[in-house]
Design a protein that fits this description.
heterodimer, A: about 120 residues, mainly beta, seven-stranded mixed β-sheet, four-stranded antiparallel β-sheet, about 0% helix, B: about 110 residues
Chain lengths: ~120, ~110
């Protein structure tokens, strides 16, 4: 258990709909990163929040938005869904690694979105 | 961009050694990570290199050459459970702890 919690695990919806994915980082960790993983692509960085503030933005579509709340959980909102949005969506926290000293991204189990 | 390139697929035999290579853009480069990902699961951290040289961690070792923009992950005494995708990822200046990933190398371990 990475300590990063994501819900729901699976979600099936139709084109044009809107969904919300939720992430709770490890206790005490202020950062949240969102990644998208499609079948034909690697992990694509979407957006990062730190203590409620947007810190970095990647290849996130305008139809997608995110926020981090005062309790540090984060939500990723996906709207006007298209077939191509079907993917695994991962949330991660940045955790110091005791062996290397590096800040290591630790991922949640992911939310699998299927758009029909 | 910050292209990270690695082979798409590799096959190796149980008990053998396999080396998975990765090249990355050197401009602004900070550090290099390797992750393992089993199908449908979350990536899990394997190793981190920031200085040139080899870092050994049990059956897994990782090497970095900053000047060449090159890294490899070495897996020894392969086991069937090592069948997975291996992701090379880098951090860059100004990106904080954000990881830029390659598309991954799917390793199949056969008997």
């Amino acid at each position: 258990d990475s300590g990063v919690t994501q819900t729901p695990k699976h979600l099936i919806t139709a084109t044009g709909q809107r969904v919300t994915l939720r992430c709770s980082p490890r206790s005490g960790d202020l950062s949240v990163y969102w990644y998208q993983q499609s079948l034909d692509q690697g992990l694509q960085f979407l957006i990062q929040y730190y203590n409620g503030e947007e810190r970095a933005k990647g290849n996130i579509l305008e139809r997608f938005s995110a926020q981090q709340f005062p309790d540090l959980h984060s939500e990723l909102n996906l709207s006007s869904l298209e077939l191509g949005d079907s993917a695994l969506y991962f949330c991660a926290s940045s955790v110091p690694d005791g062996y290397t000293g590096a800040n290591v991204l630790t991922f949640g189990a992911g939310s699998r979105l299927t758009v029909l | 961009g910050q292209n990270i390139d690695q082979p798409t697929e590799m096959t190796a035999t149980e008990g053998a050694i396999v080396q998975i290579n990765c090249t990355y853009q050197t401009s602004g480069f900070n550090g290099l990570f390797w992750y393992q990902q089993h199908a449908g699961e979350a990536p899990t951290f394997l190793s981190y290199n920031v200085l040139d040289g080899l870092e050994e961690k049990g059956r897994f070792s990782s090497f970095l050459s900053r000047s060449k923009g090159y890294s490899y992950l070495l897996l020894k005494e392969l086991q069937m459970k090592d069948s997975a995708s291996y992701l090379c990822a880098a951090t860059y200046t100004g990106g904080g702890n954000k990881l830029t990933f390659g598309t991954g190398t799917q390793l199949k371990v056969e008997l």
